[in-house]
Amino acid sequence: MSLRLIDTPEPLAPAAHNAKQVLLAESEVCQQLERVLRRYLERKIHGRSILISGYRGSGKTTSVHKALQRVNEAVPKQENRRLLLVTLHGPDLLPAGKEPERKGGEDSTNQDTPGAETLSRAETDRQTILKRITAGLYRALSRELSRTFRGALERKDGTDSSSSGETGSEAELSELAAQFELALDGQPDLKELRGFWHRAGGLDRGLLFPEAGTRTSGPAEIVAVASAARAYRRITGKEKSQLEAGDLDQWENEFQSSFSSSISDIARGLTSLFAASALLGGVLLENNILALIAAVATVGATFSWKGSRVRKTKVEAKSFFFPDTSPATLERELPVLVERLHAAGLSPVFLIDELDKVEDLRPRLKQVIHHLKHLAAAGVFFCFLTDRDYFEDVYRLDPSKSYPKEHTYFGDRLFVVHRPQALKKHLNDVIEIGKDREKMEKGLLIYSLLCRSVLHPLDLRRALRRLADPAGLLKIDLDEIRGRPGIRVVVTYQIAVEIVLASQDTQDRLELDPGIVQPLYDCLYYPYRMWSAGERVLLIDRETLKNHLIGRSHRSASPETAGPESWPRFDLDFLHRRLEDLVGLLTDLEGLRAEADTRPSRFFEDLEVSWAVRSAIFRPDSMEGRGNQRLLEAITNGSQQYRWCRDPYGVRYPDPDAPARGADTPGPNGTGAAPPASSSRDPAPEKLPEELPRDQVLAIGRHLQKVSDYIFAKTESLDLEALASELFLLPPIPSWRHVRTVVAKLKGLQDPLEPDERFNEDWQALTDFLQLIHRRSSSLERALVLGILAGHAYGSKGTTSKADAGLRAVSRHLQGAGKQSDLEFDQALDAVEESLPEGVGLPENFSRTRMSPFLSEQEFGDWCKRIDESVGTWSASSFASVETLQQEAWEQWDLDLKQYFVSHGFQCSFPPHWRHLATAAAQRPPGSLLRSPLD
């Protein structure tokens, strides 16, 4: 028998291939964040600033990761969009210990101006956070692209023959992927990026969404990466660029003239002229002789003169533009970059973690959000993770101011807190059982872990890791877990807490004011924290509770410094009433058990496990000399003071009002002594006598073993353990298996017994089980008789005895997996007895007997004799045939169902009938198919 801890990955871990593999405790924050992120991814909202707060270790980061992973996995493959997580470290965004730079240098005239340093620090913080946002965004984008680039190369390798890119060997493609990753570290330019997209075959349809890309996906991705690289380049170094523009207008004009007065030149000209005239037949000379003579005369008149003239004009204009590439411009660039990422299909989500470690968080974060609020409106999604202090500062703003600035800083203000049902489901998922019968032990372990971790996820994980060995097996003795008082006390406390949480007044307040959940948890676990710290006396007055709540929120508890952040009166009144309700349940264990039995399914949907958990509640001991099973008692001095009767591990404290036990004071054997505690803090547990007569201690064990042997003899297969863990005719706690182990251990000890450190628990297990048998003796007697008779009359021959079949029919139709209380079980037995066929006689004292504490052999013999006589009396009775019984049973169900529908389903359970038991014992319908409690 063993329990195993399932090794589950965290959300977004490399091994977490899908969200179904992540077994995480659900919180309302995760669900709310998932809805907002889905709207953001669908572009139904531009952006958001979300405040997520909680105690350290409460799962703030994990909740964001889980919500983001779920949203991404819910996107159909045909759609090209997903969220891109950008994680930023809060202390890096707002570093501590850095002297703010003053504008204008040390000699600036405003350095002594009040507020100048504050403004400078705010500006420095703004510059720092812009740089960190840009760097984080580029690195997250680089990681995403590196992953998708490798995936694209793997798909392309030998399979995509139609791609425009080139194929290569596996080694070449792996080298190309590494080259791409290194290129992203160096902020590649547009040409280089285009080359990589071309090689991977994503120039058209892109790399990010291979199944949903369009022809514009590739260019959009390249533009987004190039823009991110350009922004990243601005914060990693100084970039210088110059744009030169010029205008040049130039005009040039040149004129030259010259003349020679040489006679020979004139003669050569005339000779040429006459020769040309002769060729033309004298026409030129005949018609133009006068013009010729005039030209010759003119040439002859302009001789001995030469001149030259040049004129030039030039106009030139130049202008220079130096782009501002300083980090200060990132405030303008980031909205554009984010929009381009949206166009590429990636919606960035900035997770700013560890802000609780930032000095002076509230004023510094106030300035940063003031300057960066426009980014959320421009499409940026921010998650600010802080501790409880900052949440309460914002949640409980000064009511005298009309909507201060902080009121609109965050679109949603969420506080991570886990409800008990969510943690129980998580533990039920991660703890694996080897056999179905181990689920009761598993349920008890879950409840003990919830209480000892005070519903804190980190403490819960640590407790599980401490219990698990390297193979994941939990180091727990399942044979003893149901009998250990240390388990029962914390299970009892946790049940009381859940009853208070489930009350109508509590639920009404939580629906209207979710911010009160964590203070309510602090209030309800205040007694347990004091108890675990060794404080036996519990104070529950208003002032003590107020100081505890202030201390839990890391605020000063002194009235002088508490100030306006102290708890409002109506909040304190509500919390104090819930604390009084809790203490009232712990001081009235019978009332606690009765309240727990009203709605068994609130503890576990599996009613068998729920019954085991409810059976762990301590009962006030009504048997003289059997010890005190009270858990908490009031101190009779009129004040709101209480005293624990046991320590958190189940060991009884001595009664401070009782005298020390001596030889005349009855103890387990009539003798013993235990001095009262000298202080209310960490008193010594009650001591047993140094020596106990062996026979007197083992007498209880012998009597209990006789009961188990007698039942086994009558049923041929069942003992006390089977009646509890399989048939639910006995409460599973205390465990007979554990008691039997104790008896065997005590038998091996010498006489007289010398109690060891575990003897106190062993003795308690014996007395507890004896009390259980004493309390259940009457109902157990009646159930045994009815089961044995039903089995002998109609039981089918199978692998088990007829009596076994009859008792299982009793369990099926009467006890209902243990969800009925003792009173309801007795009432069900009465109903079956009243429906018995005519002619079946009952012993006169059958339903009114109660077994003694088994300190007398005569009492035990009388109990066995009554059962034998009842079975013998009924065996002589005549019963109807199976066929007749089956027909009558169907008629009975017909009447019950009609009554059920007439009542519109309000009456979900009907009094069980003898016919139901008999047909179930015969393994015939309707008894074998339906149960009397329909719900």
Short précis:
The chain is of the alpha/beta class. The strands form four sheets. It has a five-stranded parallel sheet with strand order 3-6-7-2-8, with helices on both faces. A three-stranded antiparallel sheet has the order 10-12-11, with helices on one face.
Explain what this protein looks like in three dimensions.
With about 950 residues, the chain is an alpha/beta fold. It folds into 4 domains: about 1-20 and about 420-480, no CATH class; about 25-95 and about 120-235 and about 325-360 and about 385-400 and about 410-415, no CATH class; about 480-645, no CATH class; about 695-920, no CATH class. About 50% of the residues lie in helices and about 10% in strands. It contains 33 helices and 12 strands. The strands form 4 sheets. Strands 3-6-7-2-8 form a 5-stranded parallel sheet, sandwiched between helices. Helix 11 links the parallel strand 6 and strand 7 (about 380-385). Helix 13 crosses helix 14 (about 440-450), helix 16 packs across helix 22 and helix 32 crosses helix 33 (about 915-920). It is elongated, with a radius of gyration of 46 Å.
